[in-house]
Amino acid sequence: MSSRHIVVATKNPGKAREFRELFASKNVTVQTLADFDQLPTIEETGTTFEENATIKATAISKLTNLPVVADDSGLVVAALNGEPGIYSARYAGDHDDQANNRKLLAKLSAVPDSQRQAAFHTTLVLVKPNGNKLVTEGTVDGKILTTPHGENGFGYDPLFWVPAFNKTMAEMTDEEKNSISHRGRALRKMLVQFDDWWEK
Ligand SMILES: O=P(O)(O)OP(=O)(O)OP(=O)(O)OC[C@H]1O[C@@H](n2cnc3c(O)ncnc32)[C@H](O)[C@@H]1O
Ligand SMILES: [Mg+2]
Fold first, then answer.
1. Which residue intervals of 12-165 are DSSP H helices?
2. What's the domain count of the chain?
3. Nearest CA to ligand 1 atom 12
4. 168: domain range?
5. Which of 37, 71, 72, 113 is catalytic?
6. Could you confirm whether 72 is annotated as catalytic?
7. Residue 77 and residue 93: Cα distance in Å, rounded?
8. Which residue of 2, 98, 141, 152 lies most exposed, with the fewest beta carbons within 10 A?
9. Which CATH number does the domain housing residue 29 bear?
């Protein structure tokens, strides 16, 4: 099978790495926004993960005339009524993982261990310039610790503890994280339908 090429519409290097690994088995080569100089920043003006992923994927597909997948994702914390949700990247104002983690811990400072459930969510949208679109979702349940653990991953990974592994996502290898993560789950669902989608 000849190699196929898509653009992953992300500026987040942590996501880009995970996508490269997850797509490797599919004979799909990947570029990300870091490989393009001239593209404008796409504002995430939607009110849901799916709207934002669709905005990113559609805009970049039109601009590059290539097939594009976009990921909109975030952390949903039950005790905070679903915050930070679609605002996860900019929770503390400015795309700063450490500041976001500090704000999350501050907001949860009075919340006991038994009420610190959270979930990571991803919606993936894959589109072609002709508009052919495929949407999948993935989630993983966990709990927010009171201090960070681990150096791997990105974003809220050092605070997100996963019961099945008894460690945080930042203590997992890439392979372990991909095997249970919201992004890994959403992308595996997408890959099942990828060949059909590619032909349309
Ligand atoms: O929009 P792009 O350019 O893809 O990059 P982004 O970082 O802004 O991505 P989102 O708009 O989808 O916001 C997602 C945020 O949710 C958090 N997040 C998502 N997936 C995560 C993961 O696997 N581990 C830790 N934090 C994650 C992290 O703070 C991300 O910045
Ligand atoms: Mg973003």
1. 13-24, 49-64, 97-107
2. 1
3. 72
4. 4-199
5. 72
6. yes
7. 18
8. 2
9. 3.90.950.10
Cβ atoms of 169 and 149 closer than 8 Å: no
Nearest atom (ligand 1) to Cα of 89 = 31
Nearest CA to ligand 1 atom 16: 74
- Whether 105 and 55 have beta carbons less than 8 Å apart is answered as no
Q: Is-contact 170 150, C-beta < 8 A?
A: yes
pLDDT on residue 27: 83
User: Under 8 Å CB-to-CB from 35, ≥6 apart: which residues?
Assistant: none
For residue range 127-182, list pLDDT tens digits in order. Answer: 999 999 999 999 999 999 999 999 999 999 999 999 999 999 999 999 999 999 99
How many angstroms separate the alpha carbon of residue 114 from the centre of ligand 1? 26
Q: What separation in Å is there between the alpha carbon of 34 and the centre of ligand 1?
A: 16
Q: Binding site for Mg(2+), residues?
A: 43, 72
* SS3 state at 38: coil
